[in-house]
Structures are given as structure tokens and as C-alpha cells.
Amino acid sequence: MAYTRIAPTPSGYLHLGNAYNFLLTSRLSTRHGGQLLLRIDDIDRARYREAYVQDVFDSLDWLGIDYQVGPNTIQEFESKWSQQLRIDRYQEILDELRAKNLVYPCAYSRREIQAMTTDGIYRGENRNSQLSLDQAGVAWRVKVPKETSLELTKKDSHIDVDIHREMGDFVVRKKDGLPAYQIASLVDDVDHGIQLIVRGEDLIPSTAAQLHLAECLDFLDFRRSVTFHHHPLILDAAGQKLAKSQGAQSLKAMRESGFPPPEFAF
User: Fold this and answer.
1) Rounded distance, CA 190 to CA 5, Å?
2) Closest CA to 4 of 43, 32, 45, 40
3) How far, in Å, CA of 225 to CA of 258, rounded?
4) How would you classify the pairing of strands 35-38 and 3-6?
5) DSSP 162-219
6) pLDDT of 47-104, one tens digit each?
7) Residue 63: burial class (beta carbons within 10 Å; 0-12, 13-18, 19+)
8) Per the confidence metrics, is the pTM higher than 0.85?
9) Which of 46, 80, 142, 205 is paired with 168 by a 20 to 30 Å CA distance?
């Protein structure tokens, strides 16, 4: 039995790409006789809206997806399932990375990194600054040595992901002191005992980064038991990835216009 999850971010109304991921995850969970968890990733509260959380529930109901574990209402989510309730747990893991001397402080802005690199990826050009991890306004970055790579399975083939090249020294604690996506997502998957993770193929570098973190943190049971499935993306008419922030046609608009739930050939 495989324990898997749906993990939307309440930063906008969901779109067809989300529907594809949810339906595929549900299909694979059923195929393997597993349990499905609804986990709403609200670690970033800047764009959080209750309407977006409600849209998750409405969209899953419209798509006909049943999940066995997780919240059913906004109130239940806020009181029992929000990532904001797990900040201390994330910090505990961040402190473990600090104790192992695997993180360092970085004050560069995204604009400054864009100016100093050709691809916007920071690879530790100034790891030995005199900043302190306890200083306000600094991010914590993981030290990713050169030629750090990891093999992943994509369909029936194996691919090597060069984590240093693809992700660089990625952020695990943001400048505001809150845990970044990479650490929160990993810790939640480990703590919930997730064994099957379904993601778009654009997140292959993130998967490699999180598995690298798992090795750094000795999450050996997770590394042995987890399987990743990376699926092709649903693209818009211009061939671009759908994104809530870019105003892609929402599932909410489709429901309100009377469209039936989408069907995909998996």
C-alpha cells in the first residue's frame, strides 16, 4: 500500500495543471491500494487567502476525488493542518542542518543574484562572508558541493540531476526567518510517512534537492521507501506552463461556466 498526497498551494485559484496532477495522484493511489492525504501548503502566507483554500475543497469535490486523510473545511485546516502549526518542527530540522555546518547566511537579493550570474542560480560565490546565521535579514542556504548529483527515474529511463548546477546553494530558511518550501515539503513528507509523490517534471530539480537534504539529515527510511512520479506539464495555447500567478484559466471559472470536469488519458 502506497501512502501519497495532494499538496496544493493556496496562492490563487487552481488550474487545469493542478487538476491533471490531482487526478493522476488519485489514480495511482487507487491502483496501489493506497491512502491519499490532502496537505495544503500554506507556509507562504503573503498570498494566502481563505477563498483559495475553499477552492481546493470545491475543486476536489468537482473532480470527484476522495481523500482519506486531511481537512474538510477551512476551519479544520486552520486549527489542525496548517503548516503554520509546524514552524517549530521545521526550525528543529533547520537547527540540525546548522549543527552539521551545512548551511550559511546569505543577504543577497534576487536582483543582486541575477546581476552576478547568467542564470539566476547562486552557487556559493561568497559562502565565507562575515555574516551570522542569527543576523536579521539573512537567508540560510545549503552548501551544495560542486558535482553533487543524484539519479532519478523518469518514465522508463534514469536521469542524473546535477544539483549544484540546477539548484545551486538553495534556500532552506528565508530572510523573514520562516522555513522555505524545500525544507517544509520534505519534513512534511517524512513526518507523514509519504511513499509516493506525484509532481510535474518541472520539479525534478526540486526533487533532487529534497533528496539531497534527506541524505544530509539521515532520513534513511524515507530515502529507501519513497517513489517519485514526474509527469508532463499541461501547457497553455502559447506553449507556456500554466500558473496561478499568471492568470491561467481557473477550475473555478470552468465550474461556474458549467463545464464538466476535465478528463485526461493517463
Assistant:
1) 12
2) 32
3) 42
4) parallel
5) EHHHHT-S-EEE-TTSPBPHHHHHHHHHHHTT--EEEEEGGGHHHHHHHHHHHHHTT-
6) 999 999 999 999 999 999 999 999 999 999 999 999 999 999 999 999 999 999 999 9
7) middle
8) yes
9) 46
